[in-house]
Amino acid sequence: MPARAFAFVLTDPSETRTARDLAEGLEASPAAVSGAVRYLVDNRLLVKERTPGSRAERYRLADGDLWATIIRARLPLMEHMIAGIDEAIGYLGAHPTGEVGTARLRETREFFAFMQQDLAEMLERWAASRGVPR
Question: Which residues contact 35 (CB under 8 A, 6 or more apart)?
Fold first, then answer.
């Protein structure tokens, strides 16, 4: 349902829409839409707003370069994962049988560090290709 809701918002000409709009457009239950928009807001794919004087919440795409914003939001998560892997390496490294696990964790850490750096560089190239100042 989150994928369907996101695709609907991405292609719908309206700038904002309510949960009711989404439920009607997707022909889905309010409960299904509620869970979908919560997921999409939590993952920064949608922004939740409240219209002054109204109790209804409205949902819209994030302003600006949506896809770069989404990828940029994932970089701190990768940093957090790398820190957790470093901590695990410290624990396993102190354990006599931790050699195999430590080697696997080091490879995992190298992969995430590579991805983090590569994504950051890719975002810079993307901005440059669009003429956006850094």
Answer: 1, 2
Rounded to two decimals, the pTM is: 0.69
Alpha-carbon dihedral angle through residues 34, 77, 122, 46, given to the nearest 10 degrees? 20
The pLDDT tens digits of the residues spanning 78-128 come to 999 999 999 999 888 777 676 888 889 999 999 999 999 999 999 999 999
Indicate the burial class of 13 (C-beta count within 10 angstroms; 0-12, 13-18, 19 or more): exposed
Q: Residue 10 is encoded by which pair of tokens?
A: 């991405």
- Which residue bears the tokens 């109790």? 55
**Sheet of 57-61: strands edge to edge?**
17-18, 57-61, 46-50
